[in-house]
Design brief:
The structure is a single chain. The protein is built from eleven helices and eleven strands. By secondary structure, it is of the alpha/beta class. The chain has two domains: 184 residues, Rossmann fold, CATH 3.40.50.450; 113 residues, Phosphofructokinase domain (Rossmann fold, 3-Layer(aba) Sandwich). Strands 3-2-1-4-5-10-11 form a seven-stranded mixed β-sheet, sandwiched between helices. Strands 7-8-6-9 form a four-stranded parallel β-sheet, sandwiched between helices. It is elongated and about 75 Å long. The structure holds 6-O-phosphono-beta-D-fructofuranose. The site of 6-O-phosphono-beta-D-fructofuranose (F6P) has 11 residues, from loops. The site of 6-O-phosphono-beta-D-fructofuranose has 11 residues, from loops.
């Protein structure tokens, strides 16, 4: 009997924990006697036919490394039918019994398209934005949060030494999760997020009042979808004359060694994905739900739209004065 084969790829924006997930997929596959094929550069490599067979040596010393050794890409061709058909044909040519897709919402859309073309696919939610529904946490979010709070801790030292206001811009696309959670975890004064309207005049009035009360430095976190850090800093300077500095955290947030949480999540997601494929399941996404791993139909995931920020989190931030 032919040995079973599965493929794995990382797609879209990279995040910490992708390597640990590929390692888990490879180890779980090999433990079941399954050959694992690593597709290089996400859907781009799938369409162009770039892949390599992965063994234990391929994933040794990978657990703790950020980024993705398989590399990733944002592939426009995978958004149209011709590209999707090519990708499915190449997978059939490789003789794989299933595919694990590690990525964000666009990547999961591609996974669903392949499932519709007869390839069994299991998706693993990986995006620092934490905007994927049906999982409490996506891979990479916790590490990104740790990166942000490390940066803010450093900024607070210098802000307090100089009576300065810092405007810190986080990633998150149209989702304010990183900004609000990092504000709670770092003690920032404001979290400006796309989900909640804000008025810069009110912020300036509050900053002035805080200053008069003796609190002369502050951190204003702004999610990239809620405004530009430099423009906010300029408005504060123009309105109340405060010396203001800007830090755009950018892609720094996506890199670095994964946190313990992301490493263990990677292990659980990777193994669950392989288990599902070996049970002849497909068209699903693994997710974390109240500390358990749960499978949800990709169709539901895609049609649910963006995962909203939990109202409890917003209330918590408000109670803490953010
Ligand atoms: O989706 C992850 C993310 O890091 C977003 O937070 C950000 O808006 C985007 O990707 C940046 O994309 P790129 O790496 O293509 O510049």
């Amino acid at each position: 009997m032919n040995r079973k084969r599965i493929a794995v790829l990382t797609s879209g924006g990279d995040c910490s924990g992708m390597n640990a997930t590929v390692r888990a997929v490879v180890r779980a596959g090999l433990a079941e006697g399954v050959e694992v094929v690593g597709i290089l550069k996400g859907y781009r490599g799938l369409i162009d036919g770039h892949y390599e067979i992965l063994g234990t040596r391929s994933v040794s010393n990978m657990l703790q490394r950020g980024g993705t050794f398989l590399q990733s890409a944002r592939c426009r061709q995978m958004m149209d039918e011709a590209g999707q058909h090519l990708a499915a044909e190449n997978l059939r040519g490789l003789g794989v019994d299933g595919l694990v897709v590690i990525g964000g919402d666009g990547s999961l859309r591609g996974a669903l398209a392949l499932q519709h073309l007869g390839i069994r696919v299991i998706g693993i939610p990986a995006s620092i934005d934490n905007d994927i529904p049906f999982t409490d946490m996506s891979l990479g979010v916790d590490t990104a949060l740790n990166n942000i709070i490390h940066a803010v801790d450093c900024l607070k030292d210098t802000a307090s030494s100089h009576d300065r206001t810092f405007v810190v811009e986080t990633m998150g696309r149209n989702c304010g999760y990183l900004a609000v959670m990092a504000s709670i975890a770092s003690g920032a004064e404001y979290a400006l997020i796309p989900e909640v309207p804000y008025a810069i005049d009110d912020i300036c009035k509050n900053l002035r009042r805080r200053f008069e009360e003796g609190r002369s430095n502050s951190i204003i976190m702004v999610a990239e979808g809620a405004g530009k850090a430099q423009e906010i800093a300029d408005s504060i300077k123009d309105s109340i004359g405060f010396e203001t500095r800007v830090m755009i955290l950018g892609h720094y947030q996506r890199g670095g060694s994964p946190s313990a949480f992301d490493r263990t999540l990677a292990a659980r997601f990777g193994v669950a994905a392989v288990d599902a494929l070996l049970a002849n399941d497909g068209g699903k996404m693994v997710g974390l739900s109240y500390a358990s791993i749960k499978l949800t139909n990709l169709e539901q995931v895609i049609h649910a739209g963006r995962r909203p920020i939990d109202a409890v989190v917003l209330k918590l931030a408000a109670t803490l004065g953010i």
